[in-house]
Design a protein that fits this description.
The chain is mainly β. The chain is 0% helix and 39% strand. Strands 1-2-3-7 form a 4-stranded mixed beta sheet, with no helix packed on it.
C-alpha cells in the first residue's frame, strides 16, 4: 500500500513523502518499516500530494509508481509529477525520478490529481493521467493530460 506522510521526518527534516508499506498491515506501522520511501525535496516545498500504483508503464513486467506534487513552491512552481519504475526499495528522492513531468506554467498545479489510465492505446504499456486544475490562470480552466507509456 502507498501512504502519504505529509510531515515525514526524512533526513532530520519534516518533508512530505510517499511510503510503500508491505502488507498485511495490522495496527501502527512505523515509517521506518516502509519497504520504500519517495521523499520530497525540501521542508518548505509542497511535494507529495498524491501517489498511485499505475501498472507497468515501461513494459518490464514490474509495477510502477506515480507521485504528484501540484503545489511545488521552490523548484517547479507549475507542479511536477514523478514516475518511478519498479522494483522499489530504500529511499528515492523525487528529484531523482526515472521520469519527471513539469506543469506548463506557474500555478498550473500539474500533478495535483494523478492516476493510471490502463492501456489507452492498446500497445501493451500502461498509460497515465495527470490533472492540472490551474492550467489557465486567467479563466479558471483546468486540464487533464493522458501520457502514453510509449512516450516515456
Amino acid at each position: 500500500m502507498l501512504v502519504l506522510a505529509l510531515d515525514q521526518d526524512t533526513y532530520g527534516n519534516d518533508i512530505a513523502s510517499a511510503l510503500l508499506v508491505s502488507g498485511p498491515v495490522d495496527g501502527v506501522v512505523p515509517a521506518t518499516d516502509a519497504r520504500a520511501t519517495f521523499a520530497g525535496q525540501s521542508v518548505d516545498d509542497l511535494w507529495v500530494q498524491s501517489a498511485r500504483f499505475v501498472g507497468d508503464v515501461d513494459g518490464d513486467g514490474q509495477g510502477d509508481i506515480l507521485v504528484g506534487a501540484g503545489g511545488s513552491l521552490l523548484s517547479d512552481p507549475g507542479g511536477v509529477t514523478s514516475l518511478f519504475y519498479g522494483p522499489f526499495s530504500g529511499t528515492r528522492e523525487l528529484m531523482g525520478a526515472d521520469v519527471r513531468m513539469l506543469g506548463e506554467q506557474m500555478g498550473a498545479q500539474a500533478g495535483h490529481a494523478i492516476d493510471g489510465a490502463g492501456d489507452v492505446d492498446g500497445d501493451g504499456l500502461d498509460d497515465l493521467v495527470i490533472g492540472s486544475p490551474g492550467w489557465s490562470s486567467t479563466d479558471g480552466e483546468g486540464a487533464a493530460y493522458v501520457i502514453l507509456g510509449a512516450w516515456l
